[in-house]
Amino acid sequence: MAAGWLAAAPALAAAPERSFAFDQPAQPLATALLTVSARTGAVIAAPSALTAGRRAPGLSGSMTVSQALRALLAGSDLDFSLSPSGVVTLKRRAEAIPTAPRSAARPSIQHADEPTLVTPISVLARPLAEPATEQARDTPAQVDVLLEEQLRGAGALGLGDALRQMPGVTAGPEAGEARQIAVRGVGGRFTRVRVNGMETLATFGASNAVGGTNRGRAFDYNIFAADLFKQVRLQKTASADVDEGSLGATIDMRTRSPLELPRRHAVFIVEGGYQTLSREARPRVSAVVSRRDAAGRLGLLVSAAYSGRAMVEAGASAGQWETGVAVAPGFGSAAAPLDLAAVNAALHARIPRLELMQIDQDRLGLTGSLEWRPGDATRIALDTIYAELRSSRRENLLESFTFRTPGACAAPPDPRCGINAVVVADADIALFGGRKPVLIAGRFDNVDIRSEARRDELNTIFRQTTLAATHRFREGLEGRLLAGFSRSDFSNPVQQTLYLEQFDVDGFAYDFSDGDRPALNFGDAALASPDAWTISEFRSDPNWVDNSYRSLALDLENRSGPLGWRVGVLAKTYRNVGSARMRSDGGIGNINADLPSGLRGLAVGDYVRLVGQGVDFGVTGAPAGWLAIDTRATLAASCATGGCPGFELGAGPVAGLNYDVAERSDAAFLQLALPRSPSRRFWGEAGLRVIHTRIDAAGLDVGADAVARWTSASNDYWSTLPSLNLAWSLSPEAVVRFGAARVMVRPDLISLRPGVSVSTTGAKSAASGNPDLRPTRADAFDLSLDWRPRPGVQLSTAVYRKTIATTVQGTSTRPAPFSANPFGLPDSVAAAACGAARDCSPNLPIWQFSKPINSGPGRLTGMEISARAALGAGWTVQGAAAYTRTKVRLLDQTGVWVDMQDALGAPRVAANLGLTYQRPGLEVRAALSHRSRYLATIPAPNGGDVDGVDPLTTLDMAAKLTLSPRLTLSAEAANLADARQRQFSDRTLIPTYRHHTGRELRLGLRWAM
Predict the structure, then answer these.
(1) Which of 113, 202, 233, 878 is most buried, most CB within 10 Å of its CB?
(2) pLDDT of residue 121
(3) Residue 153's pLDDT band (boundaries 50, 70, 90)?
(4) Longest C-alpha distance within the chain, in Å?
(5) C-alpha torsion sign, points 392, 396, 399, 400
(6) 3-state DSSP call for residue 405?
(7) Which of these, 167, 177, 165, lies nearest to 914 by C-alpha position?
(8) Distance of CA 459 to the CA centre of its chain
(9) Whether residue 98 has a cis bond before it, omega within 30° of 0
(10) To the nearest 10°, the Cα dihedral for 611, 614, 619, 624?
(11) What does the pLDDT look like over 229-275, one tens digit per residue?
(12) 217, 299 contact by CB (below 8 A)
């Protein structure tokens, strides 16, 4: 692919210089150049010796970058030259090389005996079709950048969707949009995020199939609208001046600054969005308003973004796979000629079901920036950001729990007996991977059918305030201060589930042999008859997660000598508090099957509704609809006044989700730098970061008396992290970079909680945290080449290797009686936890035990390539691909150490391809994104050794039509191919889940002042 782009390079067409609107006052020359760079996206290298003490006239009107620079330098002895890669360099007039058009022959650059110190210029804006690569070219670290227009790229719904454009990045969808990202073969928990220079975390909830509530360190990008940010910077190699916490990348997101915009600036966007499965439209609006004084000393900016979505997600799931032996005592009988022992030895679908999710979502974002420059040497900025994501989720599932319900049937059998009552009428047992027998399709009698209706209200409020100050003590010596606080409050105050049930249905069948189109048949169940359904269970599971950060950083940087240096300190406190409740009688028992008296007396027919009509589930044999209970109306009628018996909530049944863990980090760093200059071909930086970490953890612990009590623990450790980043300019067109560093990623704070908890609502388990966990540690090495043979053509390649000393793994055992637990708990604890659950007993071999541990070692190796080429006639193609292999030693369910491939939560292959067509007033872009399969859970909690996610390829498109200099019409389409999201169980790739969310279309107008 890259070879094809390079072959097309001679067809480059020289693009005419673009004009920009300027409105900036007379000011110091250095400040004026910074403003021009911010306005145009041009990279300007300005030796400080040339700009010191010089003033520049004001600029007003529309002009090109060249015209603006000539106006600023008029009457001085300075001029400028343009390098083949597009970098503007200031020179004295006698030394400057005339600026030539891009199609002219490449000039030879004369190196003057000037001081080599270069004033840094930040790239802040650039048209969508032009890459934001010049900002990354001068840094010795490996950096990718997305700018404001690119963040609103083809089909991007939220911030996570926009990040998929970056090389090596993949995104996992939730409710049809990207929620978390993976970088270079490692999942979201290995990638650290900073907003306006401060580390932070934002989390949300999701369906159980994609992880449920986020209680870890992975950042949920879907909370933020891409409109709020001016720039996202992704640094793939570590450096001492950047906070620790990344095995994949550090992502810096920045909001806008008022002093980097024209004196008066305003942008308004109005869009309408339509989702094809829900057949509903919702608005999307955003605005940016900025104002600064005539002197460019004081500025104020506010921005806002709101979007609404109404979407439907539909599909089918096997609910994972398990053997009949593990769901003891297994199937009761099998029709001839089937062998019952062989049927029970095979993996069967645990909860085969149809799944329908209806989601109404509102996302609001606000930013504010107050910036003051009392003098040329001082800058003070107060930045705030507020983001809220609110979602109302309704899940309706048509399913059977019979295949996961253990226990021997009595005589006569209880109608709720479970798998032991089932007669296997027909079975197709396939051998997956040549070793795993799987009951991939079958027909069954005496099966209980459930209609599950779940209602969730989810909300995250994210707030952050930072105060940043910089002061230049003298030329080249600068001090910085950053103080900030951020908080992400996730609440799921309503999570209520009601189950309707029909018993002893004959002819139930499933077939998952076709992963693209499974089959489900609900036999002789009367799905549309209210009289056939009975309310069987009521669950209420509200939960909350609060993440907060407090940071104070100070550093001092000197760039005035031949060798620069930077020193700094950081004090940071991160606190993660989890809280959860469940229906409770005051103990730890499961009382979900005990219906409150107010619920038992209701007539089912008064509260049911038909769901699923006209929905494309992608399932053969799906019914035209089924009855589901209206959860809100039913519970309101059964407990109209509140405080009713049987509705009480307690923490005991979900003790493990109640914890409070604080992590205090104190760090200091020293970094030496050999800066880049026009006369230097070799530059780089080397540094050392030292961190002391203290953990204070508390959590609910279930003791031998079956009572949950708070317990606490503490821990501390030191970390020393050296880093080295070097760059060598082979020629004006090619730069080689090398990076080496020791990196660390701390465990999720929930893993550090003390105490043991017992859960009986799904799989029967006992689990503990581990306050003594150590961080993931690795030595990382990166080598890259950045080659730009001519304007408009770029090819970048990189190879990387990470040697992992240790990582954090959640362990899980195979099912066994409760007496096998490693926590020393008696069987009486399990009996108390079972409560009213009929499928639960300490003696049944159905209990699993888990604990996070440090495992490893391991290694990660990979290669990345990205390229861009202008094809002429307005066409540009760009793309990237990364291939990463990981192998980590992990503990499997049998207690044996195994070397597991692809074990870090990310795909081997991450690729994207974009094609852009531009002509005056029109821009059209298509973007293709692909990720390969990856493993999500190791080891899996059920019969497979792992759970994983299948490949996903999406196609997005966007178009912009300029109606006037201020007004632009846009059209965007996301997921045009309606890609199916699929999951598998076991490394033999047993199909287990298939959903789709339809397409999303948007049409909008943008007005800019």
Answers:
(1) 202
(2) 35
(3) low
(4) 104
(5) positive
(6) coil
(7) 165
(8) 17
(9) no
(10) 60
(11) 999 999 999 999 999 989 999 999 999 999 988 889 999 999 999 99
(12) no
Mean local confidence (pLDDT), 619-635: 95
Q: Which of 81-85, 92-96, 354-358 has the highest mean pLDDT?
A: 354-358
Instruction: Name the nearest CA neighbour of 185 among 253, 250, 249.
Output: 249
Query: How far apart, in Å, are the Cα atoms of 559 and each of 563, 671, 732, 819?
Result: 7, 12, 24, 66
| Residue 716 backbone dihedrals phi, psi, to 5 degrees | -150, 155
Is the pLDDT assigned to residue 664 strictly greater than 90? yes
- Residue 716's CB is within 10 A of a number of other CB atoms, namely 10
Tokens of 359: 């989601």
| Angle of helix 29-40 versus helix 65-73 axis, rounded to 10 | 170
Q: What SS3 string covers 456-516?
A: EEEEEEEEEEEEEEEEEEECCEEEEEEEEEEEEEEEEEEEEEEEEEEEEECCEEEECCCCC
**What pLDDT, on a 0 to 100 scale, did the predictor assign at position 790?**
85
pTM: 0.86
**Length of the chain measured in residues:** 1009
Question: Which sign does the torsion angle of CA 83, 88, 90, 94 carry?
Answer: positive
Q: Which amino acid type is present at position 651?
A: A
Which tens digit of pLDDT belongs to each residue from 695-735?
999 999 999 999 999 999 999 999 999 999 999 999 888 99
User: Residue 637 burial by CB count (10 A; 0-12/13-18/19+): exposed, middle or buried?
Assistant: middle
| 39 φ/ψ angles, rounded to the nearest 5 degrees | -75, -35
Answer yes or no: are the C-beta atoms of 327 and 263 closer than 8 Å: no
Q: Per-residue pLDDT tens for 728-771?
A: 999 888 999 999 999 999 999 999 999 999 999 988 999 999 99
The C-alpha atoms of residue 290 and residue 302 are separated, in whole angstroms, by 6
Alpha carbons 893 and 174: distance in angstroms, whole number = 29
- CA–CA dist 889, 502 (Å, integer): 46
Reported as half-sphere exposure (CB side, CA atoms, 13 A), residue 951 has a value of 9
**E strands, 378-422, in order:** 378-399
How many other β-carbons are positioned within 10 Å of the β-carbon of residue 564? Answer: 18
Q: CB–CB of 428/440 below 8 Å?
A: yes
Report helix, strand or coil for 430: strand
Residue with tokens 């002061």: 471
Local confidence band at 109 (pLDDT 50, 70, 90 cut-offs)? very low
Q: Are 282 and 216 in contact (CB under 8 A)?
A: no
